[in-house]
Request: fold
Amino acid sequence: MVEQVAENPEIPVTAVQDQFARKFEVGVSRMQAYRARAKAKKVVEGDYTKQYAMLRDYGLELKDKNPVGVDCSNGIYPKVGDNRYAMQTCSGSNLVQGRGVH
Reply:
């Protein structure tokens, strides 16, 4: 299932049902097929919540490794505060920002 979702993320639920029927000789409901497709998408695309949670750790690591200042040669740098973090351009506009969860 994961391979098919990687090739076509918007594979129809009916196609998922047909695939289970052919491959495993078992009937699945539309909801079961929908959930299977959703789980396969999560495997293929990754969990955005976990990736977003890593942003603060990434910013803190960069800040720790570069305590003197920020080199804007690549145009992006982390800005980490007490309970807020962002990835900013050197002009000061935010690319990504968020708040920590405590």
